[in-house]
Amino acid sequence: MRRQLEYLAVKSVELAVRPLPLGVVRRLGEGLGQTFYAFDRNHRCIALANLEMAFPGRAPGERDAIAKAMFQHFGRLLLELLKYASLSSADKLAAVEWEGEERVRLAYAQGKGILFCTGHFGFWEQQALAHALHFEPMAVMARPLDNPRLHDLLERIRTSDGNPVLYRRGAVRKALRLLADGRGVGILIDQHMTSPDAIYVDFFGRPAATTSTLAALAIRTGAPVIPLFAFPLPGGRYRMIYEPPVEPPSEDSPDSIREFTQRCTDVLEMHVRRHPELWLWMHRRWRDAPAALEHVPGMFPSAKLEVDARDE
């Protein structure tokens, strides 16, 4: 019953926002996020604890303001994704400005495919949709949602412009085939990993269990790794940024996967430090989080992703 109600609520919102302008949807999303900030005590506590660890020098009031803005942002993200997915291809592209697109074209021209890396930052879902229209579809690695009907709704959105979604078992095999064909694969690198092949890299000066998939695929295939980020612009529009390719470690590096993963994580951290309100602070990212948060439910249930290319 709960899952059915969740689906009906999201479906109702999807139908309600379709006729509204993007700017109006953004303001409604901010109100939705503010409501969750007021009533979702568990995730508010996680966000404030994470912000205290990441920004110990900032005043409590400043960290609280970041947390509020973050909840507002993720309210916007939800409503705007439902609205953006309903637009025509022309209207989707008209809502976007691009930065660094020549880096993408040059990387595709190498013929080794591209690994796109980002995190739960900004408007990553919209960026994948717009990328498929402006360049070509990219495959996206993801975990299934626990609610099957919401999962189907999100998958319909994610694949609406031609992007395939790679889930768990067999994901690395499929990614290798796509890269061999010169295609793009997108991976989020900021979710806490519990699988045996997770590696620890520094994120805001603390060890964070991180997927090794990105670095393993890059080293195995030679595909360039391009970080990408989507920022809000006035009026419900977006600025899609493609950073320069991450420099791979030297061939004789004794710990190349960890080194490569750290370099990618450093790019993400740079943007999170500049715009902390756009990152998912309500996710338990660090292993040394306060003990009081140990049993608070996080944003992502534990899920083992098949990530070790060496086992494929």
Helix content: 40-55%
- Taking all Cα atoms into account, the compactness measure Rg is 19 Å
Number of helices: 11
What's the end-to-end separation, in Å? 39 Å
What is the domain total for the residues?
1
Mean pLDDT: 91
Beta-strand percent range: 15-25%
Provide the structure class: alpha/beta
Gross morphology is: globular
> How many E-type strands?
9
**Low-pLDDT runs:** 298-312
Structural commentary:
The protein has 312 residues and is α/β, with parallel strands linked by helices. The chain has one domain (2-311). The chain contains 11 helices and 9 strands. The protein has helices spanning 2-17, 22-39, 41-54, 60-85, 89-94, 101-109, 124-134, 148-158, 171-180, 213-221, 256-274, and strands at 96-99, 114-118, 138-142, 165-167, 184-188, 199-203, 206-210, 225-233, 237-242. It has a 7-stranded mixed sheet, with helices on both faces. A two-stranded antiparallel ribbon has the order 6-7. Strand 6 (199-203) and strand 7 (206-210) form a beta hairpin. Helix 2 (22-39) crosses helix 4, helix 3 (41-54) crosses helix 4 (60-85) and helix 10 crosses helix 11 (256-274). The radius of gyration is 19 Å and the shape is globular. The model is unreliable at 298-312 (pLDDT under 50).
Jot down its keywords.
seven-stranded mixed β-sheet; 48% helix; 9 strands
Can you describe this structure in just a few lines?
The protein has 312 residues and is α/β, with parallel strands linked by helices. It contains eleven helices and nine strands. The radius of gyration is 19 Å and the shape is globular.
